[in-house]
Design brief:
Blueprint (H helix, E strand, L loop, with lengths): L12 E4 L3 H12 L5 E3 L13 E3 L5 H7 L3 H7 L7 E4 L6 E5 L10 E3 H11 L5 E2 L4 E5 L6 E5 L4 E4 L1 E4 L17 E12 L2 H4 L1 H7 L3 E5 L3 E8 L3 E9 L4 H4 L7 H11 L5 H8 L6 E7 L12 E3 L2 H4 L7 H18 L3 H23 L36
Parallel strand pairs: 1-2, 1-11, 2-7, 4-13, 11-17
Antiparallel strand pairs: 3-6, 4-5, 8-9, 9-10, 12-15, 12-16, 13-14, 14-15
Helix pairs in contact: 1-4, 1-11, 2-11, 11-12
């Protein structure tokens, strides 16, 4: 693989973003003997909590892990029991629809986002990831080379820049003026620790997988995570600044609890404990999505994957599509004679697929508030909520 007659015969590939998509791409490239560097704004792999649990599907996320040579390692780390799903009645707290996975079921087992990231990081050659690199801009001519300007003053030259930097991607600005828009649906995240001992009632309510309830205007989604933790997402149709409109800040835990109790006053007391018994503060996560469709004019030196390319509501597809994108891009780079041909081939598959999925899920965030029972093998899945794609914050950094 080469770049062009006027550039280096060994292309310099830079991935921006050390989330699951960016790391998957780097891992598969290295397996094919292709050099790559990854740049991430965080100061290190343990700089922050990586978010909740993810379900990796056998028809996309698991395909990528197989190409990365990590599928069996994933199966040793994942939680198949996390595929259990309960639909609860908002008024009574009783269980309606209940999916219990069969023994050996591997359709979409759960894994904590942090464990998945560690699996991918540990598979890379030492020094692949450069931490503390906050990207400011991508400059240079369309036919390359491109220059990455970082906040610390570092400038990196690359023949291909891969934007895996999530919802508020700075790499995207080199290709598209599009910015995410608020969907009208807001998540509020709450954490419960040492649940089997400190919150046995909630542990029993949620079980080993996840539980959801909704009344058409508001909802709750609870997930069992590894390490005896549960995360709950309070789902509301509300303005993006609903906390400020109530005269509160996200640090005002008691004030938010009182507001939620008022808004959910008709719900079962058993379910309202998911609103009020959490350990620590809430985390505000308004949901955003890119315009539909989101496409761009082909560039031989810049492309995107995951949320940077097709940010959608968190309905169980974000990380899976990011990893599939990463897999297909890396394989295209390994199989084509030039970077330009590889990028064109990748985008010819990725853009139609993501456009179809964007159209399917456009406005689907409202479905998170539906009180109808859902098949857990369908789209009703808030599993990407805490790490909506490649970055954990739905708002601009």
């Amino acid at each position: 693989m080469t770049t062009s007659p006027t550039t280096s015969p060994t292309p310099r590939i830079a991935v921006v973003g050390a989330g699951p998509g960016g790391l998957t791409c780097a891992r598969i490239l290295q397996r094919h003997g292709i050099a790559v560097t990854v740049h991430d704004h965080e100061n290190g792999p343990d700089a922050r909590d990586q978010g909740g649990t993810l379900d990796l599907h056998e028809d996309n996320g698991q395909i990528a892990l197989r190409e990365a040579g990590l599928l069996e390692d994933f199966f040793r780390l994942c939680r198949p029991e996390g595929q259990e799903m309960r639909q609860l009645d908002a008024a009574t707290g009783t269980t309606g629809f209940h999916h219990v996975p069969e023994d050996g079921e591997r359709f979409k087992p759960e894994i904590d986002r942090g464990r998945l990231r560690d699996l991918l990081l540990d598979s890379l050659e030492p020094g692949t990831v450069h931490w503390g690199r906050t990207l400011r801009s991508v400059e240079g001519p369309a036919d390359g080379p491109r220059r990455l300007h970082f906040a610390d003053g570092t400038v990196v030259e690359a023949d291909l820049v891969i934007g895996a930097d999530g919802a508020w991607s700075r790499v995207r600005r080199a290709l598209s003026p599009a910015t995410p828009r608020y969907t009208g649906i807001s998540f509020l995240e709450a954490w419960f620790h040492d649940v089997d001992h400190r919150h046995p009632g909630i542990a029993d309510l949620v079980g080993p997988g996840s539980a959801a309830a909704a009344d058409g205007e508001r909802g709750l989604f609870a997930q069992r995570n590894g390490g005896n933790h549960i995360r709950v997402y309070v789902i509301q149709r509300a303005p993006a600044d609903w906390i400020a409109e109530a005269g509160l800040t996200v640090q005002d835990t008691d004030g938010i609890r009182a507001l939620l109790l008022d808004r959910y006053h008709q719900w079962s007391p058993r379910l309202r404990r998911l609103l009020t018994d959490n350990d620590g503060r809430y985390v505000d996560r308004p949901l955003h999505a890119l315009p539909v469709p989101h496409t761009w004019e082909h560039s031989p030196t810049v492309t995107l994957l995951g949320d940077a390319a097709h940010l959608m509501p968190p309905l169980g597809v974000g990380v899976n599509l990011a990893m599939l994108d990463a897999c297909e891009l890396a394989l295209a780079l390994a199989e084509h004679d030039t970077v330009a041909d590889a990028v064109r081939a990748y985008e010819a598959t990725m853009l139609p697929r993501s456009t179809d999925m964007q159209r399917l899920l456009d406005g689907a965030a409202d479905g998170l508030l539906s009180d109808e029972a859902h098949d857990p093998h369908g789209a009703h899945d808030a599993h990407d909520a805490s790490g909506h794609g490649e970055r954990s914050d739905h708002r601009a950094a």
